[in-house]
Design goal:
The complex is a heterodimer of chains A (173) and B (555). By secondary structure, chain A is of the alpha+beta class. Chain A is built from four helices and nine strands. The radius of gyration of chain A is 19 Å and the shape is elongated. The two termini of chain A are 29 Å apart. The chains are: A alpha+beta (173), B alpha/beta (555).
């Protein structure tokens, strides 16, 4: 099962290397990882998607907690959350195909951000399902290049930190 | 203090002193020169090693002997990379060390400058945490945080990399500095419901067994462990790291478990219906094949590191917390549960399958270790290298006190024992220190004999010399059809070598010479190296073949 972890970390140099290094040396696989500063410039949020069973996730959680720079880990998989990913796709598009592609762009509410004689570059945001569907429908035209930001996610309503979240204060209640 | 300008190096040393440190182990070099210059006027005692690996192991030995953090200091580049084995060793065995490394100036960082190595990158997986100081104003707080992280919770090594321009910079020094570590929680809170559940399981157990690890020693929980065992009349087996955490001469003691454990300890693991793991981590040298480890037992696991619980073995009752505190809480609610039949069974195993060795012929390594025990009344501090001699020491020296056995467990670092003995002797100047060594291991950090002579440290190195990398040879004999590939050693004359270093060398070739030679070494109160020529092809027995079941031992 895929899990989405929302991890607050101190915005220290090397923090990404610490987290990524932990994954590789303990044999955990990252499906995607997105990182950026929060509203507090000394704190960053990583959204990490990993696949594994409960025991795997538990061990991963515990190992992540041991990193001094990791402030809080929330497995938000089972909570209500919104997630988005932004993808840029450069697709072959000669004059004959252009109209058809633009129709797909409309249907998926994507945007064309660059045009060249032979290609279109398209920006699309959405969840994993939408992006995969869009990618599949563009594939017949010839995808020249594709880049994904990795998923970012946020709990609905209030900020992460409510029930079900494994955080370092959890044991106190 | 307001307005006083100090150099970064002075602040570094002041901050280290403020942590109660009076001794550091180190080796100077270019980028550490500003620190060494400040050290010249400092009250801190500096022990100059002969190799940075030795320096790190000495700090490790010092920390293990005292429970206080060991501090080591090295220069950038090769100085720093030479610390790596020592830091890994400390990391694997949860030893508090603070390592300071010099680094190239901030403006030279990342340019492959002379003697530049990315030591924070290199040591990321082998330290509990590390720091690269980028601003002189962070120096004092960083030192405070480093000591805090190294010594709290599950201890471990912490490295601080200090660019030389930071050491040279002149800044205001305004203590105290506050720790700012929002993500660091040293010890988890213990769930009282888990204590009650454990007490319930213990009350119901008919064949309980306590499996104690290094966490008992680190936490200082030896008295609580003894109370627990006696209250339940439950047998206790220790891991290599746990030896000394329970009196080795106690009737409830079963010795070590695992690959070279006693038969009765391993049988007890296989037969028990409740396994109480106390500050141990189910290492593969302990468990053998995981599927057949303690198959009949419900498992309680007490550990300060939540990540150890459930890592290797599925646990029925996890208890997160400091071992000493958890045991105190457990003792408060436990009822005595004395199951006679179980102890009778164990005593029968003890009678039937004692540790034994053939006593005829040449000098037996086991005999040498028993003689060291006899002559020191079991009161010596013992360090070891890694190999057969280490396992024999674990089996035949009856450790009765915590922190009396100082050995490289998790990493298995040959060359640990001699520099560790130096650290131990520095910490405990009035005690008898023995490094039980092999002829292979001793050569990995032999240069530290010079350190011992330099500082008049009366350590005793007892080389059990069989002319082989003994444990390698044993495995080749047992598992590789006696093909002794690269395990036979050509050795120097250890007596002459000792002499060259200014230590006393004593060669022992006959059994009747063993006790007098050991006695002489102890009485000399000088660094002594004993070259004790033992049976060439003696094996460490019993042995659980790698990945085998604990109840299927050879020998």
């Amino acid at each position: 099962m895929k899990h989405t972890l929302s991890v607050l970390v101190e915005n220290n140099p090397g923090v990404l290397a610490r987290v990524a290094g932990l994954f590789s040396r303990r044999g955990f696989n990252i499906d995607s990882l997105a990182v950026g500063m929060t509203d507090n410039s000394s704190v960053s949020r990583m959204t990490i998607v990993v696949e594994g069973d409960e025991r795997y996730l538990e061990q991963l959680n515990k190992q992540l907690h041991k990193l001094v720079d990791v402030i809080k880990i929330s497995d938000i998989t089972r909570d209500a959350y919104v997630d988005r990913e932004l993808v840029l796709i450069k697709v072959s598009a000669d004059a004959a195909k252009r109209a058809e592609i633009m129709q797909l762009v409309d249907i998926f509410r994507a945007r064309i951000v660059d045009v060249s004689p032979k290609t279109l570059t398209i920006e699309v945001t959405g969840n994993d399902g939408k992006i995969t569907a869009f990618e599949d429908s563009l594939r017949p035209f010839g995808i020249k290049e594709l880049v994904r930001t990795g998923k970012i996610a946020m709990l609905r309503g209030k900020k992460a930190g409510s029930k079900n979240h494994i955080n370092k204060e959890e044991d106190e209640n | 203090m307001n307005g006083v300008k100090l150099s970064g190096a002075e602040i570094l040393l002041k901050s280290i002193e403020a942590e109660g440190v009076d001794t550091i182990f180190g080796y100077p070099g270019g980028m550490a020169l500003p620190i060494y210059d400040a050290l010249y006027d400092s009250g801190i005692r500096h022990i100059l090693g002969r190799h940075e690996q030795g320096v790190a192991h000495a700090a490790d030995g010092y920390a293990r002997a005292t429970g206080r953090p060991g501090v080591c200091l090295a220069t950038s580049g090769p100085g720093a990379t030479n610390l790596v084995t020592g830091l890994t060793n400390a990391f694997m065995d949860s030893v508090p060390i603070v390592a300071i490394t010099g680094q190239v100036t901030r403006s030279s960082l990342g340019r492959d400058s002379f003697q530049e190595a990315d030591i924070t990158g290199i040591t990321m997986p082998i330290t509990k945490h590390n720091f690269l100081v980028k601003d002189p104003s962070e120096l004092a707080r960083t030192v405070k945080e480093a000591f805090y992280i190294a010594t709290t919770g599950r201890p471990g090594p912490v490295l601080i990399d200090v660019p030389s321009d930071i050491s040279l910079s002149q800044i205001d020094y305004k203590p105290p500095y506050e720790i700012n570590l929002p993500g660091y929680k040293p010890a988890p809170d213990t769930d009282p419901r888990q204590i009650m559940e454990a007490a319930e399981a213990i009350a119901c157990a008919r064949r309980p067994l306590i499996y104690a690890g290094g966490g008992v020693v680190i936490s200082g929980a030896h008295n609580e462990l003894l109370k627990l065992a006696e209250m339940l009349a439950a047998p206790v087996t220790c891991t290599l790291m746990g030896l000394g955490g329970f009196p080795g001469n106690h009737p409830l003691f079963l010795g070590m478990l695992g690959m070279h454990g006693t038969k009765y300890a391993n049988f007890a693991v296989s037969e028990c219906d409740l396994l109480i793991a106390v500050g141990a981590r189910f290492d593969n040298r302990v468990t053998g094949k995981l599927e057949t480890f303690a198959p009949k037992a419900k498992k309680i696991h007490i550990d300060i590191d939540p990540a150890e619980i459930g890592k290797n073995v599925k646990v029925d009752i996890p208890i997160e917390g400091d071992v000493k505190i958890v045991l105190e809480q457990l003792l408060a609610v436990l009822r005595p549960n004395l199951e006679e039949a179980w102890r009778e069974k164990i005593n029968a195993w003890k009678r039937e399958y004692p540790l034994k060795y053939c006593k005829g012929g040449n000098i037996k390594p086991q005999y040498v270790i028993q003689e060291i025990y006899n002559l020191t009344g079991g009161n010596a501090r013992i360090t070891t290298e890694v190999g057969q001699h280490q396992m024999w020491a674990a089996q035949y020296y009856s450790f009765t006190k915590p922190r009396s056995f100082i050995t490289s467990g998790g990493l298995g670092t040959m060359g640990f024992g001699l520099p560790a003995a130096i650290g131990v002797q520095v910490a405990c100047p009035d005690e008898i220190v023995f490094d039980i060594a092999g002829d292979g291991s001793i050569q990995m950090n032999i240069q530290e004999l010079c350190t011992a002579v330099n500082y008049d440290l009366p350590i005793n190195v007892a080389i059990l010399n069989n002319g082989y990398l003994g444990l390698v040879r044993q495995w080749q004999e047992m598992f590789y059809n006696r093909r002794y590939s690269q395990s036979e050693l050509f050795n120097p004359d250890f007596v002459k070598l000792a002499d060259a270093y200014g230590a006393v060398g004593i060669r022992v070739t006959r059994k009747e010479e063993v006790a007098p030679a050991l006695q002489r070494a102890i009485q000399l109160k000088k660094p002594v190296m004993l070259d004790i020529v033992i049976d060439r092809e003696d094996n460490v027995l019993p042995i659980v073949p790698p990945d085998g079941s604990l109840d299927k031992m050879l020998g």
